[in-house]
Amino acid sequence: MELHYASAPENASIARLASRYQMFVDGKFIDGQGPDLESTNPATGKPLAAVSSASAADVDTAVAAARRAYENVWSAMPGAERGKYLFRIARGIAERARELAVLETLDNGKPIRETRDFDVPNAAQHFFYYAGWADKIQHAGFGSRPGALGVAAQVIPWNFPLLMAAWKLAPALAAGNTVVIKPAETTSLSILILAEIIADAGLPAGVVNILPGAGDIGAALVEHDGVDKVAFTGSTAVGKKIQHSLAGTHKKLTLELGGKGANIVFADAAQDQAVEGVVNGIFFNQGQVCCAGSRLLVQESIAEEFLDRLKTRAAALRVGDPLDKNTDVGAINSAAQLTKITELCAAGSNEGAGRWTSPAMLPEQGFFVAPTIFTDATASMRISREEIFGPVLAVSTFRTPDEAVAKANNTPYGLSAGVWTEKGSRAMGVAAGLKAGVVWDNTFNKFDPTAAFGGYGESGFGREGGPSGLAAYLNTDDEGVL
Known about the structure:
This protein is an alpha/beta fold. The protein has two domains: 12-257, Aldehyde Dehydrogenase, Chain A, domain 1; 262-441, Aldehyde Dehydrogenase, Chain A, domain 2, CATH 3.40.309. The chain is built from 15 helices and 20 strands. It has helices at residues 56-74, 79-95, 97-108, 112-133, 161-174, 189-200, 215-222, 236-246, 271-283, 303-315, 335-350, 382-385, 401-408, 424-433, 466-471; strands at 20-21, 23-25, 28-30, 37-41, 46-51, 147-148, 151-155, 178-182, 208-210, 229-233, 252-256, 262-265, 295-299, 354-357, 372-375, 392-398, 416-420, 438-441, 460-461, 474-475. A seven-stranded mixed β-sheet has the order 14-15-16-13-12-17-18, sandwiched between helices. A six-stranded mixed β-sheet has the order 9-8-7-10-11-19, sandwiched between helices. Strands 1-5-4 form a three-stranded mixed β-sheet, covered by helices on one side. Helix 5 (161-174) links the parallel strand 7 (151-155) and strand 8 (178-182). The longest helix has 22 residues, at 112-133.
């Protein structure tokens, strides 16, 4: 019997949406000297709010404010005191969780159940976690005299705006650095509400500065002479440009870039469990996840049965209004991203892959893509090589574990992978051969602030999360420690 779900929309007014938002510099909300940005609701394609953006002069002002705060207040503050501020920010996120979840859904397009149950709680958890580290840095194996680096420039993407801000801000602040952070051009709203929480927590002026803007502002920030550390999450192409521009400078750099993760399903896997993991791996956040399991490698002996189950499950996913609590797949973040996904899907069909598309009815307005599965995807096809960043899965088969590992590693990326099997020895053996920063065993897309996350190759370098994420913001050499 087919089940039908009545609409269960969350109240958009909970977001307390303003008509215009200002940037946050030196402890104040001020107008930038750049042109206003327009935030668009991806579910409708209509404007949400205007956002004041920064100019190159504003970058100078923000970096100078961060430098003053670092030298005069933050670097000299005892770790226990810094930790108190992070605890306050974490509590502020938790207290305004529903508002942040609704705002993130409106601005980003992802389903409310994801922002409510994943993005916002995880953002709070990262601040709670690193608050606990702030007074323990001297005793955590980072060297005899670990010290902060100084002013950190951070650039975050549009797929997890609030969560990526937390991933970067929390360890940087716990380590004693001050920050200038630039959100993505299309998703600035939730981090500007985070700025209100930061202000309410009493964080000293200049410790955190938020500069909305386009790519030119990000470039001006990471190349600024007053910056000591750069952390970037985004596309591999931009990451390469940043690495090139910083070569030979004093700045430390971490990059978390693209991915083309493989989900490997063996014949002995619990198929229903694996189906759920594959669905979560590629359709979570509409596939707009750098570590998405966008390639499925399924053992040949079960391929037909497994794909039948997978298509049945994917066909049941509800695509539509992101504010509806019953929605599984929300809106693509922007018209530009929708165009890219559409182009790569067309390439998959033209290159000979078998295309299956969910029968889900798409809304008449907004940016939506139905869950799509390509079978018989060869390694030379664009859908197997390029990061699509959408709800699109490329499927191929394998016979032996060695073949599975070889196919999984046949990519310039190295961010994530998943292994599905009932044999622990097989899971560990395959994982050891995979060139990926994160390998999930009989699960996918599980994150914890205590665990390191990052990649190899064209997926970047450096780690976020856990003690490794803290080390990225510390000078751990005995000589020259501040």
